[in-house]
Amino acid sequence: MKNLIIASTSTLHGETYLEYLLPHLALHFKNCKTILFIPYARPGGISHEEYTHIVHLAFAKINIKVKGIHEFEDPKDAIENAEGIFTGGGNTFVLVYQLYRNNIMKNLAETLEKGTPYLGTSAGSNICGQTMQTTNDMPIIYPPSFETLGLLPFNLNPHYLDSDLDSKHMGETREARILEFHQFNSTPILGLREGSWLDIKGEQITLKGGLSARLFIQNQTPKELQSESDLNFLVRL
Amino acid sequence: MKNLIIASTSTLHGETYLEYLLPHLALHFKNCKTILFIPYARPGGISHEEYTHIVHLAFAKINIKVKGIHEFEDPKDAIENAEGIFTGGGNTFVLVYQLYRNNIMKNLAETLEKGTPYLGTSAGSNICGQTMQTTNDMPIIYPPSFETLGLLPFNLNPHYLDSDLDSKHMGETREARILEFHQFNSTPILGLREGSWLDIKGEQITLKGGLSARLFIQNQTPKELQSESDLNFLVRL
């Protein structure tokens, strides 16, 4: 059964990388000596090696080793044999492009369905939805498809940002963009604020962290879900 | 020779649609009784008819008639025979998808190269660059390609937004996203603030409006270009 932590962000303002999640990750990955890291989203274009080193430093604090998927001959084998898997944030287009290029999108979905514990942050969370179509990222590379892992019965908008009512900027607000998505698509969207995450155990989906999340269902007024809310009802939509 | 106005936004805060541009549009389209409007970007998902009506109301103030491309049997004929053309803003993915679906991307580029006067705002400006890869929009639909009209020797980022140094939000700033683009692509990017536009006459490209624009060239520090700057030097890069 699925065993996932899907977080809006890796890092909170003024904190170190993964700091707020580490106590939860120590439990989540308690049976793992080593986790497999997927660095493909390359935030700011950093190399796979640099990115994996940042993750290594964070996981060392909870005595878990980290190995980057780029260090393996066969990325499929790496995924299937991993004790736990973490996909970090960065650019979702770059991440999805690379997952398809290495032909491991399906493989990763199947492995996570079987129960390998997983952490996603930001772009690594986006890919857990049905599609990557509510990413905030720039389309800096053309992926062969926008379809992603489909582990959730909805899509995510990580780093969800409330509208600034005092702004004089005329670009679309985050909410306007998501409502626009629903003019063309019916998949529900969960706007996950920084500090929130989803805890998924099998079909049980629970909102964690101190904040509410904003749920967008096509043709309905957006609503706020409180922390500890159960999102299983979205399976039946 | 090309004759284009390429604007960051259709509308300034507190103004009506196209208000700040109308005096310039009266000159730009002075030989046009009717212009062809391309409403494909559908801001907020509005219909082609609704969008064309908004544009009709604005152009009526300068005594120019507006006809939507959806009103024509053959969109290629509509483009080739237009006295002037305007592509409005909205979602760039939806716009590019529809231009390809109707098989008119190449046709539109060729017509504008020959000198039909053109106005683009926001998404309608984005498509004038080499690719749409520095749009701010959500990928709510999957276009067959990110390549666009290629009328400019660079890409645009409309609605360019300076970083808020006080923000505690951890999502990428606009500048960070553009620098990330340059980790994977070499095309120069011009960040065009709301109120700025480019005036293109043949190969002459001039920055207009009261504001500076931010130019990003791969492996160089971003620089501010003042209003009335000449951007022709980008052709030689």
TrEMBL record, chains A, B:
Tagged with keyword Protease: yes
Alphabetized UniProt keyword annotations: Hydrolase, Protease, Serine protease
SUPFAM superfamilies, alphabetized: Class I glutamine amidotransferase-like
Gene Ontology MF term list: serine-type peptidase activity
Biological process annotations from GO: proteolysis
Record's keyword annotation contains S-adenosyl-L-methionine: no
Pfam families per UniProt: Peptidase_S51
Gene3D superfamilies: 3.40.50.880
Cross-referenced InterPro entries: Class_I_gatase-like (IPR029062), Peptidase_S51 (IPR005320)
Database matches in NCBIfam families: PRK05282.1 (NF003642)
Family: Belongs to the peptidase S51 family.
Protein's recorded name: Dipeptidase PepE
